[in-house]
Design goal:
By secondary structure, this protein is of the alpha+beta class. It is built from three helices and five strands; from the N terminus they run αβββααββ. A five-stranded antiparallel β-sheet has the order 1-2-3-5-4, with helices on one face. Strand 1 and strand 2 form a beta hairpin. It starts with a helix and ends in an 8-residue tail after the last strand. The mean pLDDT is 94.
Length: 107
């Protein structure tokens, strides 16, 4: 499969892991637009829509919330992109945690 997230989960590509659970992982995003950029990713390849209807989403949300409080005590955002117009770049569903500085207004 040509999915980088599946490759990371399978150990075929490198990543910095912050959490590893049976049904999800949290890794450091390779992008560095803000000081803290993490990704919560289900271990099963599912779409963004399927993720948001899945019982794994609250687990990912809890992990990202805990990591956000730990790594960005001044505040953070948790967000997902749906589709090209929202800049979704991976078909494997995932959730972003961003923070580490004042994030400014919404899009």
């Amino acid at each position: 499969m040509d999915c980088i997230f599946c490759q990371i989960i399978a150990g075929e590509a490198q990543a910095t892991f912050y959490r590893r659970e049976d049904d999800f992982v949290v890794i450091k995003n390779k992008l560095t637009w803000v000081p803290v950029m993490l990704l919560g990713i289900p271990t099963t390849h599912i779409t963004q829509q399927e993720l948001w209807q899945s019982p794994v989403l609250p687990k990912i949300g809890k992990a990202l919330s805990e990591l956000g409080e730990e790594k960005t005590p001044g505040g953070f955002r948790v967000l997902s992109n749906f589709g090209r117009d929202a800049m979704q770049s991976q078909s494997h569903g995932h959730v972003h945690l961003i923070g580490g500085l004042h994030l400014g207004p919404y899009a």
